[in-house]
Amino acid sequence: MRKISLFILLIFVVVCATKPQDVHFSQFFDAPQTMNPALTGYFKGEHRMYVNMKNQWGIKDITFRTYAFSYDLRINKNKRFMQPECLSLGAMVFADKAGDLNLSTIQANFNVAYHLSISNNQTIGAAISGGFGQKSINMTNAQWDDQYDSNTGTFNPGIQTLETNTFNSFYYPDFGLGLLYTIRKKELSRNSNDGIRAVLGFGAFHVNSPEIKFYSSTQNVKYSTRYAAHGQVFIGVPSTNVIVTPGVFYYNQGKMQEIYFGTTVKYLLNDRTRYTVFINQSSFSIGAYYRYADAAIAYVQVEVNDVALGLSYDINTSKLKIPATLTNGLELSLRYVFSKANQKRYH
């Protein structure tokens, strides 16, 4: 197992050192600022917070752990609730650690977005993002060939190695941008549930191609710009409490690309009548997504008032042959939206 873990980690380090790739969440729709800076402030409310946690290959020594926290707020142009034209501010931090050497990435970005109404049923948004990142690796638990004990047939950390640890921790600036377009067909009445809303977006990350340099003596390697495109359609099923949301997400970074597609079905647990329209909704959602040639994703979410808790599970479908205990990934998301008592939102 130790040889397997070291081998997998070595592959990961080599990939990161040549063409680094960004972390990603299976619940991409519940990690908006990692998908598109222009999604900053794109919600009904005043303040929003997200916490995301992902555990991939959940076994000692080769676990990939990713955590993210984001916060955004809307600064309305006037006091009307959910005014389409507004300035929005946001911040996002994520930390990613891999393997028993804790190959670590920490990223912090700050976003500024503006959303503008261009007609009664269309809005556009644009955003810029800026921040910094840090990468490091802890060589304390590293094992080398000259620590192999032929008498026992195992690695012996007590044997002094002749290898020198020259990995450097380093920081880099980081910038991005995003665009967003929304078109909607409004409901005929507050309880008809026949509205449709389509959202299309584009994001670009690492547009300044920051340098990645673990060794001071090596040739500089640069982050490839990551391009992301996404689309979702929120479809109310008339005269029911059901909302169907098909979605697709694509990103490209250097030679790496991924595409997700699938559908979420939300059931509103309380009726939306003229008597309850200003009461926060409680709902239950289930969904299924597919990351092309890689994994099937099962998803559930429970929303009560301003809080939503989501859970997803990745099931490996790729050709990568690794032990069965390493093929799946668990992911959690927690969302909180704050609205004034007399300005509760409805979907």
Task: Give the secondary structure arrangement, pairings included.
Layout: H1 2-18, H2 32-35, E1 47-56, E2 64-76, E3 86-98, E4 103-117, E5 122-136, E6 148-149, E7 154-155, E8 170-185, E9 196-205, E10 211-212, E11 221-222, E12 226-236, E13 242-253, E14 256-268, E15 283-291, E16 295-304, E17 307-316, E18 328-338
Antiparallel strand pairs: 1-2, 1-18, 2-3, 3-4, 4-5, 5-8, 6-7, 8-9, 9-12, 10-11, 12-13, 13-14, 14-15, 15-16, 16-17, 17-18
Short description:
With 347 residues, this protein is mainly beta. It has two helices and 18 strands.
Notable traits:
347 residues, 18 strands, disordered C terminus, mainly beta, 2 helices, 14-stranded antiparallel beta barrel, disordered N terminus, two-stranded antiparallel sheet, Porin
Fold and architecture overview:
- With about 350 residues, the protein is mainly β.
- The protein has a single domain, classed as Porin (Beta Barrel), CATH 2.40.160.40.
- About 5% of the residues lie in helices and about 50% in strands.
- The protein has two helices and 18 strands.
- The protein has helices spanning about 1-20, 30-35; strands at about 45-55, 65-75, 85-100, 105-115, 120-135, 150, 155, 170-185, 195-205, 210, 220, 225-235, 240-255, 255-270, 285-290, 295-305, 305-315, 330-340.
- Strands 1-2-3-4-5-8-9-12-13-14-15-16-17-18 form a 14-stranded antiparallel barrel. It has a two-stranded antiparallel ribbon with strand order 6-7.
- Mean pLDDT is about 85; it is low at about 1-20, about 275-280 and about 340-345.
